[in-house]
Each structure stands twice: as C-alpha cells, then as structure tokens.
Design brief:
It is built from 6 helices and no strands. It is mainly α.
C-alpha cells in the first residue's frame, strides 16, 4: 500500500513538473476583447446553436482567425459583420435583420403558434358538437345487468 502511495505521489510530481502555463489567447488583449464582442453575435455554422466564440469546431476556429485578422487590419465591427454576412448569409447572425428574405425566421414561430391554437380550438369544438352515441336496447340491458350485479356485490 505504501508503494502504491509513493508511486502515485511520484506520478503527480512528474505531471506538475511537465505542466506549462496556459498560452495567452492573443498577443493583444484589446484585439481579443473585440473578438469576443463580435463573435458572440455570430453563429457557428457547424454547431448552429452556439455562438462563434463558444464553439470549438474547426470552422469556428478559422472564422475567429479571420475576425482577428480583420481587427488587426483596422476594420470596424460593422465592416467585419458585413463581411461575414456577405460571405455566409444572414444565417451567420444570431439576430438577423428584418427583411423579405428573413421574414419566415421572424414570423414563423408566431404562425405556428396561431395554427396550433386554431387546431386545438377546432378539435374542442368538434368534440362538443359530436352527439353521444345512443345505446341499443341490448347494450342498455347489458349495462343494467352489470350495474345490478355491482350493487349486489359492493366489495368488487
């Protein structure tokens, strides 16, 4: 048991000796801060439910590198966003602008909600309007017999 503890301690010390300090995200912290602000507004084209800054996909890494290069080239945030939209379409934006090509994105959820309420309303209305099916004489006699048997044996 002591040998196992000594072996684990030696392994832990070896890991600590090999460990390195994390490399900085960028040479310039201002560039990295702007990258974060811009990339939070852009969608990862691979993951689709993650922002560009949160994604670890290879394409996301390439896009972040492109944004960094454009920041270093002195382009404004709006110019960088416009470049990304020109290259990848409005889908790359988390908040696409309201225009004719993006109207389904903006109005689609409301249309589906209204359609769902209409379907429920029609279903309920039809159920209320449907008459109760009448029992035949034979069915009524069988029901009366079952109810009489139940009254005779309440423990069942």
């Amino acid at each position: 048991m002591i040998r196992l503890a000594a072996l684990l301690a030696a392994f832990a010390l070896a890991c600590i000796a090999v460990a390195k300090e994390a490399a900085p995200l960028a040479d310039d912290p201002k560039v990295e801060a702007r990258l974060i602000v811009i990339a939070e507004e852009l969608r990862c084209l691979v993951c689709q439910n993650e922002s560009l800054i949160a994604s670890r996909a290879d394409l996301a890494m390439d896009l972040k590198r492109q944004v960094r290069e454009q920041i270093k080239a002195g382009k404004s945030d709006a110019e960088i966003r416009d470049y990304m939209v020109q290259r990848y379409g409005d889908f790359v934006l988390y908040r696409p602008p309201v225009k004719s090509s993006t109207l389904p994105l903006w109005l689609g959820p409301f249309a589906l909600l209204i359609a769902g309420f209409c379907a429920i309303w029609m279903f309920v209305r039809r159920r209320r309007a449907a008459p109760e099916p009448a029992l035949t004489g034979e069915q009524e006699a069988r029901a009366d017999e079952l109810l009489a048997n139940r009254a005779d044996h309440p423990s069942r």
